[in-house]
Amino acid sequence: MIRAITLVPSFFLLVHPLLCAQSKTKPAQQEPRTASVQRTDLPSHFEKAEALLKEGKFAGAIAEYRLSLEDHPENEAAYFGMALAQTQAGLTTEAVLSYQEALKINPQLWEAETNSGMLLMKQNGYARALAHFRRASELNPKHFQSAFFTAKALESLGQWKEAAEAGLQALPLAEDRAAKFEVHATLAAIYLKVGSSRQAEKHLMAAREQGTDSAIDFELARLYFQRGEYDKSADLLAPMAINHPDDAMVQELLGRVFSRKGSHEAAIAALEEALKHQTDGPARQRITFELAQAFQGLNQPEKAIALLQPVASQSSDSNLHFHLGTLYLQQRTFDAASQSFLRALQLNPDCVECYSNLGSVFMLQEKYPEAITAFLRFKTARPDAAGAYFYLGIAFDKLDDVDNAIKHYQRFLLLDGGKSDKQSFQARERIKVLEKRRKKR
């Protein structure tokens, strides 16, 4: 399944002070790892620890490093090696502490700063991690990982501007395609979060040039969808849907794209496929809602209602209830329509259109007092909506409230300005009749 760009890139590797190819100079005071250990004819605890670490026997390596430090407590390499073994053994907190001990002995050990930061990132300790990455970059300004993870930590802290700046600074330090890919992907994610669509597109395209990744194509397709560039979005999603037929996210987005393009049959096929593979409850409701709209686009309201009815009983989405209400209204199932609009209003009291549609339902049911209440609420929110005054005029007219009927008909004519010929004619004629009735009283 295609996922969003990951927090920790694929090259998340702890830095080794002797094997790091990017290290141009050795930190001050750093000697070969065995330099502080007295050699004898038998392997020392330190040498045993190093051998066990290479063999992947991490618990044994940790024990030997501890014995080594009892004899040579100032051996920074032993603390560093123990931190590597602890990391592999899943002892993240202990590993961070071991790196800190190595740094007490050698404050210039930028590798320990970098590794500490990466471990803290895995523990969501972003602020502490950031301090380590910045210190590592000060010690070794040309080291890519330190610069890159500075951007990642800032991103995780929500400091978008600083994160983007750090990412741009890390970009020239990236020496291979994988590293460049990750920087561009990270910058794209940052710009997406701050709504800089064009910058996000630029870095998504740059990431695509460095390597193939479905997550990048999906983010780019989603970006085009949000901008209304549906053809571009469909061009990216169509092959992804073929290659990942069981990916609900891809199928859903493709279905939504087809719906916006007016290709309702294609939308239904993709959305039904998405529904087949989606297990998340809220996501299934969202897909069902979109699918119902596609059926409505094909003028098949019965199928749309059949989809939404079982979902509505458990849904707290006011839009879904509003949409179901419009379908019931279209089918002239008035009681069900009014119940749906009232439920939508319970969930979202600011649903102005709910009052308008509810008023229409009551008018069709000849429930004029209820219609007046609904349209008055609508008029309060939309005082310049001419249609509301027309229907209020009719409702008051039906209740023989002459003064209010005339007032609302007149207001309708003023706001409408003759745009609605039939309604304007009806309003003028009713005003004439009502004024004669009022004179006779």
Topology record:
Blueprint: H1 45-54, H2 58-71, H3 76-88, H4 92-105, H5 110-122, H6 126-139, H7 144-156, H8 160-170, H9 177-193, H10 197-210, H11 214-226, H12 230-243, H13 248-261, H14 264-277, H15 281-297, H16 301-312, H17 318-330, H18 334-347, H19 352-364, H20 368-381, H21 386-398, H22 402-416, H23 421-440
Give a structural overview.
The radius of gyration is 34 Å and the shape is elongated. It has helices spanning 45-54, 58-71, 76-88, 92-105, 110-122, 126-139, 144-156, 160-170, 177-193, 197-210, 214-226, 230-243, 248-261, 264-277, 281-297, 301-312, 318-330, 334-347, 352-364, 368-381, 386-398, 402-416, 421-440. The chain is an all-alpha fold and 441 residues long. 43% of the residues are buried. The longest helix has 20 residues, at 421-440. The protein contains 23 helices and no strands. The protein has a domain at 384-441. Helix 10 (197-210) runs antiparallel to helix 11 (214-226) and helix 17 (318-330) packs antiparallel against helix 18 (334-347).
